[in-house]
Automatic annotation (TrEMBL):
Protein name: N-acetylglucosamine-6-phosphate deacetylase
Pathway(s) annotated for this protein in UniProt: Amino-sugar metabolism; N-acetylneuraminate degradation; D-fructose 6-phosphate from N-acetylneuraminate: step 4/5
UniProt source species: Streptomyces fulvorobeus
Alphabetically ordered keywords of this record: Carbohydrate metabolism, Hydrolase, Metal-binding
Active site: D271
Required cofactor names: a divalent metal cation
GO biological process: N-acetylglucosamine catabolic process
Length: 384
């Protein structure tokens, strides 16, 4: 197979393992997986002066490479997947945006086939069960209260590949929907919400375990009305998503979340739309027109931020070089934590023997130099 070495030893790099970073470490790749020991004819790649970290896991992503997961053809969805792989994301969940129920059911069918083929790791339904007060880049006329029967319809249409629903849990039917999702092992994520602190606590008690892009599309942190942010940050059962593109969050907000929740409860996501890895211009986000200028996506009408153009290699580099988060902590929140939440940590999310050989090579400035997925170079480092 092109680009695939059956037995390869990556030598000389700083390797980030679940137990910590090993200087001058070795990662052995065999048959697409990480192996415990090398065979004699193994090819050695010298990665001195580089980092080797696990492949990134993005649990919230709407597209890239000019293609949309919400509306694109199968070919276009695969273009988006490939674009994000080239930026280090070796495991990716496709997120939809608010649309008509029939349309979302149709999309669930298309995307679920790509999950079954191994191109995607699952589907995240963001909307339509969200708050009109915090709609962000979702079509207001198509929003609706969470209805467990409709949630079930979407789950059924996804044939077991639905991994997460973002809900405004304070709306009628919200708590019942959280119960339903939790019973089926699907993540109930609180987001695009106008909930109070107390309503958020109630949703967490009901089984919600993720905060969809914490800080964005929810009330701010107030000292008399702490709102969802305080409830989501303080509860150990909740993982908080953060969009680290420098537009969605001030570095101090990101640091606050890391500090308060701890690295074990942060998931770095992109919330990317089509322009990620592609460029400025006019795009569609579901039914809404978006203008991307200088890498910032905004609705043409109203100017709301409309997803990001972020890729996870940039999120990683920012976290280390601008936000000063320790590398081990960034690795946890960009690989291990989302992999655990998605139920795929046995296969991916850390560099351990037996797991898929999904890894990213970074240089000393944390610029991406190589990506391997299942033992195959997506981008082969031009070194060694
Ligand atoms: Zn999103």
């Amino acid at each position: 197979m092109a680009g695939r070495a059956d037995s390869t030893v990556l030598a000389g790099a700083r390797v980030v393992l679940p137990t910590g970073t090993v200087d001058n470490g070795r990662v052995i790749v065999e048959g697409g997986r990480i192996a415990g020991s090398a065979t004699r004819d193994a090819r050695t790649v010298d990665l001195t002066g580089h980092w080797v970290v696990p492949g990134f896991v993005d649990m919230h992503n709407h597209g890239g490479g000019g293609a949309s997961f919400t509306s694109g053809t199968v070919e276009e969805v695969l273009t988006g997947v490939r674009t994000h792989r080239e930026h280090g994301t070796t495991t990716l969940v496709a997120s939809t945006v608010t649309g008509e129920m029939d349309f979302l059911i149709e999309r669930a069918g298309i995307l679920s086939e790509l999950v079954q083929q191994g191109d995607l790791a699952g589907i995240h339904f963001e909307g339509p069960f969200i708050s009109p007060c915090r709609k962000g880049a979702h079509s207001e006329s198509l929003l609706r209260d969470p209805d467990p029967a409709e949630v079930r319809k979407l789950m059924d249409a996804a044939h077991g590949t639905a991994k997460m629903f973002t809900l405004a849990t304070e709306l009628p039917g919200g708590i019942e929907s959280v119960h339903l999702l939790a019973e089926h092992g699907v993540i109930a994520a609180i987001g695009h919400t106008d909930a109070t602190y107390e309503q958020t606590v109630e949703a967490i008690e009901a089984g919600a375990t993720v905060a969809t892009h914490l800080f964005n599309a929810m009330p701010g942190l107030g000292h008399r009305a702490p709102g969802p942010i305080a409830a989501l940050l303080e509860d150990e059962r909740v993982t908080v998503e953060l969009i680290n593109d420098g537009t969605h969050l001030h570095p101090a907000a990101l640091e606050l979340a890391y500090h308060h929740a701890g690295a074990a409860r942060v998931a770095l996501i992109t919330d990317a739309m089509d322009a990620a890895g592609f460029g400025d211009g006019r795009y569609q986000l579901g039914p809404l027109a978006v203008e991307v200028k200088d890498g910032v996506a905004r609705l043409v009408e109203g100017g709301s931020i409309a997803g990001s153009t972020l890729t996870l290699d940039t999120a990683f580099r920012r976290a280390v070089t601008i936000d000063r988060i320790p590398v081990d902590d960034v690795v946890r929140s960009i690989s291990a934590n989302p992999a655990r939440l998605l139920g795929v940590y046995d296969e991916v999310g850390s560099l351990e023997p037996g797991k898929d050989a999904d890894l990213v090579v970074l240089d000393e400035e944390f610029v991406l130099r190589g990506v391997m997925r299942k033992g195959e170079w997506i981008i082969e480092p031009g070194i060694g």
